[in-house]
Amino acid sequence: MMKQFSYRHTKEAELIENMEEAELFTFGGYNEAETEKTGFSNYSYWKSTIHAFFKNRMAFALLVLLFLLLAFTFVQPYLPGQYDPNLIINDSSGMQFRNIPPGKQFILGTNSIGQDLWARIWSGTRTSLFIGLSVALAEAVIGITVGVIWGYVRKADFILTEIYNIIDNIPNTIILILISYILKPSVKTLIFAMCLTGWIQMARFIRNQILIIRDRDYNVASRCLGTPTVRIIVKNLLPYLVSVIMLRMALTIPAAIGNEVFITYIGLGLPVNIPSLGNLINEGRALITSPALRYQLVYPTIILSFVTISFYIIGNAFSDAADPKNHI
Asked: Facing residues of 96 across strands?
């Protein structure tokens, strides 16, 4: 009797428990649409990078001003009432408008031979920015290519390290002076002289970054699965270096403009018929002792300072924005 009672009691308990589970839980079943929805993420690296960059109001404002300045350098020659930057302007009697201070006729005045300083400053800004952007682009392409090979291909490490040690021990200033002295002074000569050794610093930096992430688990797994080397580099390695590459490029542009100013300062830069910020600053430097003529140095210096400071701030802000740690 006791066994029968115990068995009946156990059955009743199981039935009560099953009824409680049926009341508390219901099977949801499988829904393919809901499954796809839970696996979807609307995260976009570049969208998040741009969103993070726009949060830095100073950098965004400088980017807008820099873009307007760059656009104006190309629009300015086509505006009405503009002078040719190399034109020597004479009055009705044939006398040159020498050292005319800023006014209605000449917005920023004229130089010592009667050329419009307004036209020469914008033409010089266009030339200097072209040099800076060209050098930055060339150094990025060469530096990234060599740096990736240097860091990823183990057999190339010894050879490229020796090449780096040789080039790095030659002062960059000496190479700039020699190339500018040997070749004909021109924009192409300056770009070639700056790119000849400038890429080595970018390559070394990329190489060090590649060495850090080359043997991480996901890269080892990709190699084991037979993923092509080019795809590993493009998909696995370079996205991690976007921030540092953009920062290096942003710093290269003002550095290239500064080198152009230095080479012109020592008399090996562009000829006087090619306006540049270096030429303008070099011409204005000779007039610094004359208070009435200092405007010829002040105006190009202001433009040069604005460009270099803007690229530095924008580069740092974009580098921070490109870091995935700062994405929401």
From this structure: 90
The torsion angles phi and psi of 116, rounded to 5 degrees, stand at -70, 120
CA 88, CA 101: separation in Å to the nearest integer? 16
What is the distance between the alpha carbons of residues 95 and 90, in angstroms, rounded to a whole number? 5
When pLDDT is averaged across residues 210-214 and rounded to a whole number, the result is 83
The structure tokens listed for 57 are 């109001």
Q: 3-state class of 315 per DSSP? A: helix
In eight-state DSSP terms, residue 86 is T
Q: What is the pLDDT of residues 74-92, one digit of tens each?
A: 898 888 888 888 888 887 7
What is the SS3 assignment for 110? strand
Gap between the Cα atoms of 15 and 46, Å rounded: 58
127 versus 324: the higher-pLDDT residue is 127
Of 22 and 176, the structure prediction assigns the larger pLDDT to 176
Beta-carbon contacts of 115 under 8 Å, excluding residues fewer than 6 positions away, are 83, 85, 86, 87, 88, 89
**Using CA atoms, how far apart are residues 92 and 96, in angstroms rounded to an integer?**
10
What would you report as the CA-atom Rg of the chain, rounded to the nearest whole angstrom? Answer: 32
CA distance 127 to 271: 12
User: Which of 38-52, 219-233, 236-250 shows the lowest per-residue confidence on average (mean pLDDT)?
Assistant: 38-52
Give pLDDT, residue 68: 92
The per-residue DSSP string of 233-297 comes to IIIIIGGGGHHHHHHHHHHHHHHHHHHHHHHHHTT-S--TTS--HHHHHHHHHTTTT-GGGTHHH
CA distance 259 to 271: 15
